[in-house]
Write a structure and sequence with these properties.
Radius of gyration: 23 Å
Number of strands: 12
CATH architecture: 3-Layer(aba) Sandwich
CATH topology: Alkaline Phosphatase, subunit A
Order of helices and strands: HEEHEEHEHHEEHHHEHEEEEHH
Helix content: 25-40%
Number of helices: 11
Mean pLDDT: 91
CATH class: Alpha Beta
Number of domains: 1
Largest sheet: 9 strands, mixed
């Protein structure tokens, strides 16, 4: 090979190598910019009347009074239909931006709201963990403390965001975001030492106070500057606050929020109330997705929606449903692989308590979100076990 030819080929190889490195770096930078929004439907949403198996006669045998007729449902496919309140979800489904995961649950399920929610918050059924799964995820993703990585929009902090490294930012109304305390404590709460005290405990408290002050200023400014023409529906489920933080460029990787007050605990006169609640959620989630597209951030954000358990397959005597087991989970986003995932529970194979038998361990969905969206390779460490991911992302 002549010298000139050799140099040309070597240069081409170097260019290819550099291009590969740059492409990998760009891909990693894009992944580092990704955001997960987790929405909790507290109270135990009735999955059977959310994604309705109208083609299965057993559904109507189990629910002669509250079963939703096919002609009232929003179209999904030749077996399932959306609850008529879920117009927002039906639109997302048509656009390929909604994934439905069937049969989610865990072995030896609890029927207690508090206990079951703690299992979902910690991803540790029938055991427990000091930290939440979102907190452990951020600990694994960012080993050193960084402000504002984790935001919990609520009146109190969720166990799901409890972290050994990061201090979650917890707020409800941004314009009133402040540290709580009695009037006589205000001066002490607002005081932050300007230099390290040399006492590790005091230094930690001062760092938390400084972070709280800075975070509150950032959140208030983000909310004050945010405006949108997008309609989130009658109940926005706190999602515009998430959009405001994203629009302001906060470095948050995980947002955690809930439809509060056990709203989905529909023991009595369920059909009308449940449809109304689902309409609020569906409209708000659809509005949020449209707002993200308006902001140019839709490709960076995916949303996970869950409830602490489903409802019993048979209706009760009060035109409602009681605490049950397996349920549907949802993923929303432009990078979500829309469609059905997992195996729907069989209505002819209920357990001894007339409950659906779960077919998908909910931690498989968590593993899919971790490895498939935010942090490839970290699911086993975060969840403290092997859970086969589902193909939920493109």
């Amino acid at each position: 090979m002549r010298r000139r030819e050799w140099m040309m080929r070597a240069g081409a190889l170097c260019a290819l190598s550099a291009g590969g490195v740059l492409a990998r770096a760009a891909a990693q930078a894009a992944r580092d910019d990704r955001i997960l929004v987790v929405l909790e439907l507290s109270g135990g949403n009735d999955g059977l009347n959310t994604i309705v198996p109208w083609a299965d006669d057993r559904y109507y045998a189990l629910r002669p009074k509250i079963g939703l007729k096919r002609e009232t449902l929003l179209p999904l496919d030749d077996h399932f239909g959306f609850n008529p309140g879920l117009l927002g979800f039906e639109r997302l489904w048509r656009d390929g931006k909604l994934a439905i995961v069937h049969g989610c649950g865990y072995a030896q399920p609890s029927f207690s709201h508090f206990t079951s929610m703690a299992y979902w918050h910690t991803a540790a059924p029938n055991s427990g963990d000091e930290y939440g799964w979102c907190g452990r995820l951020l600990d694994a993703l960012e080993p050193a403390p960084r402000p504002n990585l984790l935001i919990n929009i609520d009146t109190t902090q969720s166990l799901a965001v409890k972290s050994s490294t990061h201090t979650p930012v917890v707020f409800d109304q941004p314009e009133r975001f402040q540290r709580r305390g009695f009037a006589g404590e205000r001066a002490l709460l607002d005081h932050v030492a300007s230099a390290p005290a040399g006492n590790p405990s005091l230094d930690f408290l001062n760092a938390v106070a400084t972070s709280a002050r800075e975070s509150s200023a950032l959140v208030r400014e983000a909310w004050a500057k945010y405006s949108t023409p997008v309609d989130y529906g009658l109940v926005d489920v706190q999602l515009p606050k998430v959009a405001a933080c994203i629009a302001a460029g906060l470095p948050t990787r995980v947002f955690y929020l809930a439809y509060r007050n056990n709203a989905f605990d529909t023991h009595v006169q369920q059909p009308e109330l449940h449809q109304r609640l689902l309409s609020y959620v569906g409209d708000a989630v659809h509005g949020f997705q449209r707002d993200l597209e308006r902001l140019g951030a839709a490709d960076r954000v995916s949303m996970l929606i869950f409830s602490e358990f489903g409802r019993r397959a048979p209706e009760n005597t009060n035109r409602g449903t009681d605490h049950g087991t397996a349920n549907t989970m949802f993923l929303v986003g432009t990078k979500v692989r829309g469609g059905h995932h997992g195996e729907p529970p069989r209505l002819d194979a209920l357990d001894a308590g007339d409950n659906l038998v779960h077919t998908t361990d909910f931690r498989r969905v968590y593993a899919s979100v971790i490895d498939g969206w935010l942090a490839p390779g970290l699911a086993t460490r975060v969840l403290k076990g092997e859970f086969a991911p589902l193909a939920l992302f493109t």
